[in-house]
């Protein structure tokens, strides 16, 4: 197989997984251009700066990784030349994909090679799109805009999934469905419950107890206790809101049943 090239330090660091995008840090979209030809970097700057993008440039893959690792945030999109010495664009992209999916850091490869084989190699190495030199400004800007829009949509879907996950930790599914439906219609949910009981309990002196018994015994104790609580919740139509550490929270009566009695 192909020589994987030098391994970048940022790819060896778990901290790289938490790097935000430049727009989250700087409030403006940044495009990072990596090309070993200084003239090409000047041309790209001239094409993209008038579009309102921040431009960062580098003449090698190694320098790109060093800059990102040093400053602690990613570009919003990477324009990456294919043919570079020491570390090719394919190798840079392959190492990036060990950390970031195509939706997290879009990569557009640039090359003078218009052959189908070169394009396929670029896509197989993990790039999102491929443009050829000499650059057509309208085509380049359109491809960049498309990738940034797709990234934004992915971010929106991820935020929605995280929001839904949080709601499911606190509310029954039918309540979430009602909230979403009402929100879509532009309304709000306002209910009145005549008799509702909220129970919050925890273990007295839990911290001291945890310090005096083995972890395995502590976990077993909590599991037995929570299993008993779960059984009582099912038996009396109560809803478990949350379990954190030694704390247990349940609600009854909000559905109009007998659980509040």
UniProtKB/TrEMBL annotation:
Residues 197-261 form the Guanylate cyclase domain. The lineage of its organism: Eukaryota, Cryptophyceae, Cryptomonadales, Cryptomonadaceae, Cryptomonas. It is found in: Membrane. One of its GO terms (molecular function) is adenylate cyclase activity. It comes from Cryptomonas curvata. Residues 30-148 form the Response regulatory domain. The modification 4-aspartylphosphate is found at residue 81. Its main location: membrane. GO terms for biological process: phosphorelay signal transduction system; receptor guanylyl cyclase signaling pathway. Gene3D superfamilies: 3.40.50.2300, Nucleotide cyclase. GO terms for cellular component: plasma membrane. This is Guanylate cyclase. Keywords: Lyase, Membrane, Nucleotide-binding, Phosphoprotein, Transmembrane, Transmembrane helix.
């Amino acid at each position: 197989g192909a020589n994987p090239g030098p391994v970048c330090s940022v790819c060896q660091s778990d901290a790289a997984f938490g790097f935000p995008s430049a727009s989250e840090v700087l409030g403006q979209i940044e495009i990072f251009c990596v090309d070993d030809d200084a003239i090409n970097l000047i041309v790209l700057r001239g094409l993209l700066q008038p579009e309102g993008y921040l431009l960062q440039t580098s003449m090698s893959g190694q320098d790109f990784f060093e800059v990102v690792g040093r400053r602690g945030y990613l570009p919003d999109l990477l324009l990456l030349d294919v043919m570079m010495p020491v570390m090719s664009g394919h190798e840079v992209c392959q190492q990036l994909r060990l950390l970031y999916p195509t939706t997290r850091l879009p990569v557009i490869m640039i090359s003078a090679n218009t052959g189908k084989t070169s394009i396929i190699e670029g896509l197989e190495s993990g790039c999102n799109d491929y443009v050829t030199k000499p650059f057509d400004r309208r085509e380049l800007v359109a491809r960049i805009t498309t990738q940034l829009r797709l990234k934004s949509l992915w971010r929106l879907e991820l935020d929605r999934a995280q929001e839904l996950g949080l709601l499911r930790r606190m509310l029954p599914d039918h309540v979430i469905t009602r909230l979403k439906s009402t929100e879509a219609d532009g309304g709000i949910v306002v209910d009145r419950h005549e008799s509702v009981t909220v129970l919050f309990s925890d273990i007295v002196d839990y911290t001291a107890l945890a310090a005096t018994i083995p972890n395995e015994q502590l976990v077993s104790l909590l599991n037995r206790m929570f299993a008993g609580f779960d059984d009582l919740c099912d038996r009396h139509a109560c809803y478990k809101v949350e379990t954190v550490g030694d704390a247990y929270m349940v609600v009854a009566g909000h559905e109009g049943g007998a659980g509040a009695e």
